[in-house]
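Appendix B, Record 12. Input sequence as logged:
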Amino acid sequence: MRTSLFLAVALAMGAGAVAFDSAQAQTAREVRKQAEASMTLSGVIDIGREGQVEGFQLDHRDKVAVDVAAMVEGAVKSWRFEPVRVDGQPVAARTYAQLRLLASNLSDGTMQVRLADANFGKSPDAPAQSTNDVTAVRMRPPAFPANAVAIRGQGQVMLLLRVGRDGKVADVIAEQTNLTVVAPERTMQMLRDAFARTSISAARGWIFNPPTTGEDKDREFWTLRVPVSYSFEPRETRYGRWSAYIPGPRQKAPWKTGEDEKATGTDLLPEGGVYMVGRDEGPRLLTPLG
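Logged structural output:
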């Protein structure tokens, strides 16, 4: 079961805010009310033959607040998975886990914190070797838009890509653009447009290797999610820290992705990964997060 508790979460919105004059202050305050905060953690889970969690090692525990680490460890250790089978027989297994915490219901500096999503499988930093997967050949990162740099604008774009059988990007949209700054809506829309435009432009030149084995190899195309981060800090230094953001509107792909009604938590996918849409990787969690 999901464990919920209230923690005092210090959102450094002031340090990450775009400067604006007093005439725009009211608009910025209204935008600030939409703020959420997320934290992405990772670790390794040992699963017993009956699907029980026998051990959990949280990565970089020293970088995580004690109460947050205790909450996550308690929740994970109560989980149960569908038993992992090899040749029909249940076996002990180990999986890498990516966990996303969401803080919401801001009230006087206090927010409700919950485990919002979890992915299982291999680390996004591990080289992708499986011929069952769509794997990257060339993914040149987009440039940081100059107009965003000028006002210290930061955010994350979640791209949806349609990759054809030739490995080229046949279509791409910015599914959602979240900003980690507060400003009047006009400025924030400018930032969303700039981040989305540069991300889409870069993605059109990306090249992938389609799968040559497995159940997905004969598809006409494959849909991928790719998070693109625009930040002045490297990912490693942000681990274990809350990231406040203003969620942007979500768009649907003009092509059929196979998960239109069940996509949840996609705005919190960790950066650094390429995620095949409609693909369930790793062991199946039976315990509801909610």
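The chain has five helices and 14 strands.
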